[in-house]
Amino acid sequence: MKKILSVLMVLIFCVFVQQLHSDAASDIKEAVKLYSSGDYKAAAPLFEKVFSADKSDKNMQYNTACAWALAEDKDKAFAHLKDLADAGAVFLSMLINDKDFKSLRDDPRWEKIVNKVRENINKINLALPEKHLTKKIVALPAPKTDGNVSVEKTMQTRRSVRRYKNEALELSDISQLLWAAYGITKPNDTYAFLRGGLRTAPSAGGLYPLDIYLIVGNVNGLEAGIYKYKSSGHELLLLKSGDIRRELCNAASEQLMVENAPATIVYSAIFERTVSKYGHRGRERYVYMDLGHSAENVYLQAGALDIGTCAVAAFDDLKLKQVVGMTREEDPLYLMPIGKLRKKTD
Ligand SMILES: Cc1cc2nc3c(=O)[nH]c(=O)nc-3n(C[C@H](O)[C@H](O)[C@H](O)COP(=O)(O)O)c2cc1C
After folding, report:
1. What is the pLDDT of residue 17?
2. Which residue from 312, 335, 341 has its CB within 8 A of the most atoms of ligand 1, so it is best to mutate?
3. Strand partners, 37
4. Would the CB of 312 count as within 6 Å of ligand 1?
């Protein structure tokens, strides 16, 4: 029952702002109250009533399934879950981890639902590209390796910034931030696994599992589109033209900074690069540690340039993969919207 509170908040918002759905809002409020008090047998029909009034509301249908499962009406719970799975649901981790479905897991129908959801996910993954096609290569200006702001100052003043000036970023800003994220500082062609050399951020075994995209909406010198940063050569590969910030924001749980920022850095990882050497430890620890090192560099470099950014990890993995057009083997990890800092006078 993870989505009930957010659904409730959205509905309450509607009631106050648009004066709509007042009956539904009070029914949901009552259903949540009954659910929270453990009276599932009373809560479930109320959820069912709300869902019946708007059958397009998948979150409400999921919550209705939860309530019926807890009320131990397995047939009704399974009917809703099957409906959702048949309609293409991809909520695998919610399904597997949601304690509300405990009573369903020994039933043979459970495995069928889980398999159907897996199938839905596989279908989406198979539609993702195996490789990227580059439309254009954009050389980035050489990054500066010296600046006017001390590293101590950037640490002291660093904050996560979620509102930006409505102004374009410069190509030199982009160059500096991507270099800070994963730029090559010690070229090396001897060891192929380094893919160009040692970088600004440390990486377990020098395996550099991260891939970095740049989603451009408003940057002087770059057409709007989806780019991939290539550390060797310090260049951007244009993968797709067009402004996708609205879709990106939607994939990031509608966090509006993602739509409003002139550009967003998107991190993904190919876990296999690290896992092939370090196994389980690589998967559970090293890739995320690598990500933290790189993202902190972006925070500090942004601070030195009077640019705001914010680490964003709340997003829908599959949606984000689709919107950015990641390859099948990549896992999305972080978004970092970037934009010029608003001054108090702006
Ligand atoms: C792993 C991680 C995930 C985060 N995800 C989000 C997010 O999805 N949305 C958001 O607004 N901030 C996100 N943040 C930013 C934190 O909210 C922020 O770092 C925290 O409030 C401390 O504020 P500060 O960065 O200004 O010191 C995330 C930070 C980390 C480290």
Report:
1. 43
2. 312
3. none
4. yes
Determine phi and psi for 233, rounding to 5 degrees.
Answer: 95, -15
pLDDT for residue 204 is more than 70 = yes
DSSP characters over 305-336: TTEEE--B--S-HHHHHHHHT--TT-EEEEEE
Cα–ligand 1 centroid distance for 310 (angstroms): 6
Q: Which domains does the chain have, with CATH numbers?
A: 4-127 (1.25.40.10), 136-340 (3.40.109.10)
Strands 169-170 and 219-220: parallel
Pocket-testing residue among 264, 310, 334, ligand 1, by greatest number of atoms within 8 A of Cβ? 310
As given in the structure block, the two tokens for residue 50 are: 């709300």
Residues 257-275: tens digit of each pLDDT: 999 999 999 999 999 999 9
> Which residues, in sequence order, are bridge partners of residue 32?
none
- pLDDT tens track for 63-110: 999 999 999 999 999 999 999 999 999 999 899 999 999 999 999 999
Q: Sign of torsion, CA 282 286 288 290?
A: negative
Contact 257, 342 (CB under 8 A): no
Q: Which H helix or E strand runs over 139?
A: strand 136-139
CA distance 320 to 173: 25
Strand partners, 184: 199
How many angstroms is it from 238 CA to the middle of ligand 1?
29
Query: CB count, 10 Å around CB of 297?
Result: 19
Listed residue (189, 192, 140, 147) closest to 301, CA to CA: 147
Rounded CA-CA distance 7/225 in Å is 33
In one letter, which amino acid is 196? G
